[in-house]
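RECORD CONTENTS
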Amino acid sequence: MTPTEIGCLSVLAIILSIYIGVYIPIALISVSFVSIWLMRDNFELAMNLLKIAVGDSVMEYTFATVPLFTFMGLIVSKAGLGTDIYDVMSTGFRRVKGGIGMATVGANAAFAAVTGSSIASASVFSKVSVPQMLHYGHNPRFAVGVVAGSSVLGMIIPPSAMLIIYSFVAEQSVGEMFLAGVIPGLMLAVAYVAAIWAMGRFTPSFIGGRPAEDFERMPWGMIAGKTLPTVGLITIVLGGIYTGWLTPVEAGAAGALAGLVIAALRGKMTLRGFWEALLETGHITATILFLVTAASIYSRMLGLAGLPNELADILAGNQASFWTIMILYVILMLFLGTLLDTASIILIVVPLFLPLVEPMGLSLVWFGIITVVGAEIGLLTPPLGISCFVIKATLDDDRISLKDVFMGALPFAGVMLVVLILLIEFPILSLALLN
């Protein structure tokens, strides 16, 4: 077989391995290693490339952002900032049809800016928001759908682990990727709120329930007390990066320290809780860096196979337009989203399509936002839909089935697709803060 044929088979083998349950980094490393060995008939070359992949990936200074932002997110969750933001948002939307759903979206957007984790958002707001919506008579599918849909904001609004992973694969600045994610993340949040309003106006049966008018209006002093910690953290992290006063690594360290101080002042941090946060940070960091190492050897295998160049030649020979390439890319991500998690999608498809995008003079930062938003739709689609599984497991309510969660999330996946099309058509929406 030719190297290109081996490369094609290796990509299919990786997808199949992951689908049948092989741990993602193991699938990437093992298949890539064997493929390189077969292509060059040289075991030592495959071993040397594996050593280089390990040394060149996890030793990157910018990956210090991973444990720092992970630790900050865990501490913030323990400090109860998500619940506080939800309380404030709920009082603001209390008289609106579907207002609790809108409040959930707003709280998720703010919470995402200090956690960077869609899984954390799904877990927190499943416990806080869904019971409230059910109390006011809302359709259970709408209740879980809002939480599932808005939880993906955690992977788009910085700091985001997916943006960090993309920045490594595409060799882009983590700081620029963070800044590029702000406007698309806010756009998606606004689009969700508009969609909920439209549902309440035109399909009230899907939302059901009544406005939470019996919510007591919160005094301004209490509002300030509940929002200032979150606003302060956002200012430290994103403000520090945007002004250039802090690098992403320094912003992560400052945010982690500020989060720890807030949790301690609120009496939410014990030695046991601190130790648990450290352990979980270690587990998450090891997982992400293992993925990065696997992606490094996978990218080298694709380069040896010449697969990206072959794909570029095929599309060039057929005179594929910009939109043809982007439609193929989005369809591929949506398909893989039904099988794989977001990180796997990024690691598999980005090395294939980068050689197509670069010659067209397109921004790789913009392409990263398109990639993350497209891949995040997979969090809401069956059969994998990680956010949906987290919500079902967190609720542990026999009245709400996994099918209800997926069906409730479907309209929000549609909203994400519309926003993705806008981001493709108008790159300035992703790049405005970089100019």
Summary: The mean pLDDT is 82. The first helix runs from residue 3 to 19. Residues 3-434 form one domain. The CA atoms of residues 198 and 427 lie 27 Å apart.
